[in-house]
Amino acid sequence: MTQSxxxxxxxxxxxxxxxxxxxxxxxxDDFNELDNTFNELDIDTEINKLFSExxxxxxxxxxxxxxxxxxxxxxxxxxxxSHFYEIAKSSIKECMNLKAKLLQSNIKxxxxxxxxxxxxxxxxxxxxxxxxxxxxxxxxxxxxxxxQEFIDEIEPLNRExxxxxxxxxxxxxxxxMQSLSLAKNWIGxxxxxxxxxxxxxxxxxxxxxxxxxxxSAIQFPxxxxxxxxxxxxxxxxxxxxxxxxxxxxxxxxxxxxxxxKSNTSYIEFIKTIVFSDIWHNNFDNKHIRVLLAYNxxxxxxxxxxxxxxxxxxxxxxxxxxxxxxxGQTIFGGFGSTAQHSYFxxxxxxxxxxxxxxxxxxxxxxxxxxxxxxxxxxxxxxAFGAEENLEDHEKVNGQSPVNLLSLKELNxxxxxxxxxxxxxxxxxxSCMLQINPFDQYGVSAGKxxxxxxxxxxxx
Length: 458
Known about the structure:
By secondary structure, this protein is an alpha/beta fold. The chain folds into two domains: about 10-40 and about 265-435, Rossmann fold (3-Layer(aba) Sandwich); about 70-245, Glucose-6-phosphate isomerase like protein, domain 1 (Rossmann fold, 3-Layer(aba) Sandwich), CATH 3.40.50.10490. The chain has 18 helices and eleven strands. The strands form two sheets. The chain has a six-stranded mixed sheet with strand order 1-2-11-10-8-9, with helices on both faces. Strands 4-3-5-6-7 form a five-stranded parallel sheet, sandwiched between helices. The longest helix is centred in the first third of the chain and has 23 residues, at about 80-105. It is globular, with a radius of gyration of 23 Å.
C-alpha cells in the first residue's frame, strides 16, 4: 500500500449524526486505492443484492431479509415480494397487541429467554430507549446455561405474575432449550402453559415439540440472522415498552438504507470508516478496536456491535482477496468508566489499536463533562498531547479514531446508527470477499459440546 504526505481529513453530517475522522497515518491516496478495489469488486451491485431476495448468504443458500421490517414501515428500498412486508407488519402488530393481554392478566415480570442476538438486541433497546422506573413490566434476561442464573433471577418471582418470552430462531440453541425446560418445571401444572409462555421463532414445527402452537408463537422468516434480528419480533420485550417508538426505530433504520442506496455523501461516509478499518488492520498492524460510548444510556452498544462485527466478519481470509486480515477484535464500553481502568494501556502502553468514540450532541449542555471527555480523549488517542511533558507523562497518540455523535438520542437516530453499523459490516465483508451472514465457528462449539456430553453420559 502506497504512502504519501497527502493528508486525509474527512467529516460528514446529516440530520441524525455527525462524523469526523482523526487519522494520523491513513490518507487520501490510501482511500483512493481502496475505492478502486471497491469499484473493481462492483460492490454497488452487492448492495442491490442485499436489498432483494437474492441468496446473498451463499453458504446457507438464502437471502438476508432483516431489512424488510425497516422497509415495511419507512423508506421502502427493499426489492422483495409484497408478502414479506405483510409478514413484517403482521408480526409487529402481534407484538404490540400482546401488551394489553399481559396487563389484563396481571403479569408483572417479563423473562426473555435467549442468547446472542436474541439477548443483545432487545437488551440494548430497553436500556437505551426506556427509563427503568417508567416501564410497564419488570424485565429479566435469562441467557443460560448456568442453573445458578435461574435460581438467582427467577425463583424469587411470583409464578402467577411471570411471563416467559422464548426467543430462538432455530429452536435448537442448547442454552435456550435448557432454560425453557427449567422455566416449564418452575411454572408447574397449576397454570396454563399458554398464559405464561410465548415463543419467537422461524421454526414453528420444532417449537411445537416443546408445547407451543400457532397461538403461542410469533414467527419471522428464516432468512433473518440472529445478530440482525433486533428489527424483528425478537425484540418483543422492548416492543412491549416502546410501542410506537419501535416503529420510529425501524424508520430510522430505513432512512440509513435509503441513503446507502442513493446518497453519495452517506456512502462516502461509510466507505471512509470501512476503508480505514481494513487499511489499519491489514497494513498498520492495528488488529484491535476499542469502542467507547460517552453516554450512559448507550453503555450496552459496544456489546451489541461486538457481536455484530465479530460474528459477521470474523472469518478466514478469502484466498482471492488481497486482504489477509479480516475482522478486528472489538472491546470497550462506557467511556468514563474505561478512563479509570484500561485507558492507562491505551495512552501509555504498547498495544496497537484503533478507536470508535460515540457521543450525543445534546450532552454539550446536559452533560458537559461527559461530552468534553469524549472530544478530549479522541484528540489524545489520535494525536497525543501538545504540551512539553516529562517522559513519564507523555501519551502515545497515533491511534486512528472514528468520532461519531448522534444529534439526539431517540429511537429514530438509534435505528439510523445501528443500520449504518450494519452497512459498515456489510461493505467490509464485500471488500474482504467473505460471507457476513453465517457463523460456522459458533456452530462448531455447539457440536463439540454435544459430543462431549454424549461421550460422558450427559
